[in-house]
Design brief:
Strand order of the largest sheet: 7-14-8-13-12-9-11-10
InterPro entries: DEAD/DEAH_box_helicase_dom, Helicase_ATP-bd, Helicase_C-like, P-loop_NTPase, RNA-helicase_DEAD-box_CS, RNA_helicase_DEAD_Q_motif
GO molecular function: ATP binding; hydrolase activity; nucleic acid binding; RNA helicase activity
Low-confidence stretches: 1-101, 103-150, 604-615, 623-645
Oligomer: single chain
Catalytic activity: ATP + H2O = ADP + phosphate + H(+)
Bound molecules: adenosine-5'-triphosphate
Distance between the termini: 48 Å
Helix content: 25-40%
Number of helices: 20
Keywords: ATP-binding, Helicase, Hydrolase, Meiosis, Nucleotide-binding
Shape: globular
Pfam families: DEAD, Helicase_C
Mean pLDDT: 77
Radius of gyration: 24 Å
Structural class: alpha/beta
Length: 645
């Protein structure tokens, strides 16, 4: 066993959730020998339960079939532990006998303090065609943190946090050209991107390009761009590519789904190709030329897949590292050679700390979802990253930041990471919503939401729909409810095992489960074909999250629809920002929402006339943004510490 291999079998590869297929077979089902099981957060590896895998398994040794647990080891306990979650009546609603496909699960609430987190419990039959709600819901079973980064669900999500070591190895990726270059078509509004106003501020910006030919990409890159179905560049690519190729630092803001990923990948790969870099697998220390960081595991994996696609057939080797996956597996992958390292912050820092990744050759540092990477959840990690003694100073590296939203305070802080002459590229309104998304608001009371969601989903049928909720247990609860109502649903949130998360996304992407219930962990960056609806079952508590969430639909010139349930009691503080966002996107503002904005909290100073393109480079001073809801640090949007009604 390699020195970095995990020393013991972790139960974290063992799904606490069962997916029941419509055929009645359970791809991921398992049976515990004792029925109930639990696991201790403080030592899941030893305290959980031992399991023997009876069938399935892919070439990586992952579970692919049914498992039979040999019974709980010490430390396991049942889900009916004391806890704030346990007094709830939700559990009784799940009798586990609903047939149907449900990539979600349900866990009994149990809060036993740290070291005794999350007992699981099941009801009903675990096997066969019977519905199984075996994982997912944990009730109110999380530690309560009051402030700071540890309370940040995405931060914990991105890394392993204090979770035990994991042995999950994702399935091997298909490497045939069709899979690598599979893409969806740009939509009827793609050409309208050309009408969006673009502002580049800073000194001596280079001329924009109009075509990919003008980007002077080398032959293999050019071919890969063609095979990806890209015919002409989007505005962020037209301006971003020459800026990066000119060696300038960049803070770029462009609406969701408008091609920011290729805007930074193509010029970086082009330069690396021109320099003739080649990944060497002969070194125990790999020194990538580019590092890309993003806040969530699924997003960084997606960026990696894009990098792998564009670098196809070249000597440039991208690698991805993120939490929830075996560290040993990722180290072995790095040591095969690494030019472009894509990572979530914690795992990336871990790899550097272990001496597997060196920084002395670094030329490019990219922060995707840069505002998120610099808010209080991730900022310390970013400062640690640039603070490594080996890290080239900002004068000696190129730093690139991309997002659809940039609160001013974050912009000011971002300047610490950038050369003073960085360029600020604004495509359209900074922080504005994608205008290809039709935004609708429905006034609700908290008690009517579930039925309204069901009514809505009955009208959308099998159209792919993402339903955003505010908390992890809400995600489990709603997903389970929908499953019971025979809506093919799966869920993704930070408490699900990585294997479950990847399975949930795969089921959603393939259409096997056309409804994905998600927390904000899926709000940013994810590019999923044919998402036709986004539902904000719970509105987020900051406007930037709203912009990112609804941006999961209406991508790349396609049309999308977003429906938001607005509960005046809970969402009043967002009204003003919503009115601004709607009017900036030339959408109708419901009169009741406008009233709410005028009469609700923070109405004083509301100025609906602030319209038109605003210069929003903070160096110019001032922007249209409503700082009341933008300035709330995402770290306080605790995913799991709110009472569910
Ligand atoms: N020039 C282009 N022509 C055709 N398709 C493109 C082009 N550029 C990007 N795309 C496709 O558009 C989709 C959205 O791109 P991408 O995910 O990079 O958007 P984004 O701006 O990063 O969005 P978000 O803000 O949500 O992260 C992807 O499927 C991508 O392959």
């Amino acid at each position: 066993m390699d020195e970095w291999d995990e020393g013991e079998t972790s139960t974290s590869t063992i799904a606490l959730t069962s997916h029941t297929s419509s055929e009645g077979t359970q791809r991921d089902s398992w049976n515990t020998g004792v029925g109930d099981f639990g696991r201790g957060r403080g030592g899941r590896g030893r305290q959980g339960f031992k399991s023997s895998f009876s069938s399935g398994g892919d070439e990586n040794g992952n579970d692919g079939g049914d498992w039979n647990s040999t019974g709980g080891d010490r430390g396991g306990f049942r889900g009916r532990g004391r806890g704030r979650g346990s007094g709830r009546t939700d559990r009784s609603e799940f009798n586990g006998d609903g047939a149907g496909e449900c990539g979600n699960g349900f866990r009994g609430g149990s809060r036993g303090g740290r070291g005794s987190r999350g007992g699981g419990f099941r009801q009903g039959n675990d096997q066969g065609a019977k519905g199984v709600f075996g994982g997912g819901y944990r009730g109110k079973d999380e530690e309560v943190f009051s402030h700071g980064r540890d309370n940040d669900p995405e931060r914990k999500d991105a890394d392993d946090g204090d979770r035990p070591k994991v042995t999950y190895v994702p399935p091997t990726l298909p490497d045939d050209e069709d899979s690598i270059f599979s893409h969806y078509e740009s939509g009827i509004n793609f050409d309208k991107y050309d009408d969006i106003m673009v502002d580049v501020s800073g000194t001596n910006p280079p001329q924009a390009i109009m075509t990919f030919d003008e980007a002077a990409l080398c032959e293999s890159l050019r071919k890969n761009v063609n095979k990806s179905g890209y015919v002409k560049p989007t505005p962020v690519q037209k301006h971003g590519i020459p800026i990066i190729s000119a060696g300038r630092d960049l803070m770029a803001c462009a609406q969701t789904g408008s091609g920011k990923t290729a805007a930074f990948l193509l010029p970086i790969l082009q330069q690396l190709m021109a320099d003739g870099v080649a990944a060497s697998s002969f070194s125990e220390l790999q020194e990538p030329e580019a590092i890309i960081v993003a806040p969530t595991r699924e997003l960084i994996n997606q960026i990696y897949l894009e990098a792998r696609k564009f670098a196809y057939g070249t000597c440039v080797r991208p690698v991805v590292v993120y939490g929830g996956v075996s560290t040993g597996h990722q180290i072995r992958d790095i040591l095969r050679g690494c030019n472009v390292l894509c990572g979530t912050p914690g795992r990336l820092l871990d790899m550097i700390g272990r001496g597997k990744v060196g920084l002395s050759k670094l030329q490019y540092l990219v922060l995707d979802e840069a505002d998120r990477m610099l808010d209080m959840g991730f900022e310390p990690d970013m400062r640690r990253l640039v603070g490594f003694p080996e890290m080239p100073s900002k004068e000696n590296r190129q730093t690139l930041m991309f997002s659809a939203t940039y609160p001013e305070d974050i912009q000011r802080m971002a300047a610490d990471f950038l050369k003073t002459d960085y360029l600020f590229l604004a495509v359209g309104v900074v922080g504005g919503a994608c205008s290809d998304v039709e935004q609708t608001f429905i006034q609700v009371t908290k008690f009517s939401k579930r039925e309204q969601l069901l009514d809505f989903l009955r009208t959308t049928g099998t159209e792919r729909t993402m339903v955003f909720v505010e908390t992890k247990r809400q995600a489990d609860f709603i997903a389970t409810y929908l499953c019971q109502e025979k809506v093919l649903t799966t869920s993704i949130h930070g408490d699900r095992e990585q294997r479950e998360r990847e399975q949930a996304l795969a089921d959603f992407r393939s259409g096997k489960c056309p409804v994905l219930v998600a927390t904000s962990v899926a709000a940013r960056g994810l590019d999923i074909q044919d998402v036709q609806h986004v539902v904000n079952f719970d509105l987020p508590n900051n406007i930037d999250d709203y912009v990112h969430r609804i941006g999961r639909t209406g991508r790349c010139g396609n049309i999308g629809k977003a429906v938001s349930f607005y509960d005046p009691e809970a969402d009043g503080q967002l009204a003003r920002s919503l009115v601004t966002i709607l009017s900036k996107a030339q959408q109708e503002v419901p009169s009741w929402l406008e009233e709410s904005a005028f009469s609700g909290p923070g109405a004083t100073g509301f100025n609906p006339s602030r319209k038109g393109f605003a210069s929003t480079d903070s160096r110019k001073g001032g922007s249209f943004q409503d700082n009341d809801t933008r300035s709330q640090p995402a770290a306080q949007t605790a995913d799991d510490d709110e009472e569910w009604e």
